[in-house]
Target: Epithelial membrane protein 1
Amino acid sequence: MLVLLAGIFVVHITTVIMLFVSTIANVWMVGSYNFGTISTGLWMLCNKTCTQLPVSSRDEASLKAVQAFMILSIIFSVVALVLFIIQLFTLEKGKRFYMTGAIMLVCWMCILIAVSIYTARFTGSMVYATNPHHGYSFILAWICFCFSFIIGILYLVLRKK
Model:
């Protein structure tokens, strides 16, 4: 049981770190242009230097929603981690980690919404770039989506022994 708890804890910390990296790094879309590579994230457009991400007025609300949901997913994931640690020491024997699992599933839903909006609105629409493709931040967000769902379900069925 201790090995299972340690494994879930390590995967949860890994998910939090990957969520931070995915949200902060500006490599959601990558493409090439005349002088090298260009990448865009949720915040900046980077080639040799990074500048503010140019967004059309019709896409601005979508980008703000993606940013907000990614930040919310980080917050919910950290809250679930803290709550798991608290419940680990205060929860009675035989009880389940319902609150931790529910919060982690809310994190999962936030990641799903953010990545789905980004996929629908911004995939393949890089300005000044040829051959655009997804970068590692986008892929990390999808990996975090999978991990947060698995962790949330495990917390719901996990019983403290």
The chain has one domain: 1-29+57-121+136-160.
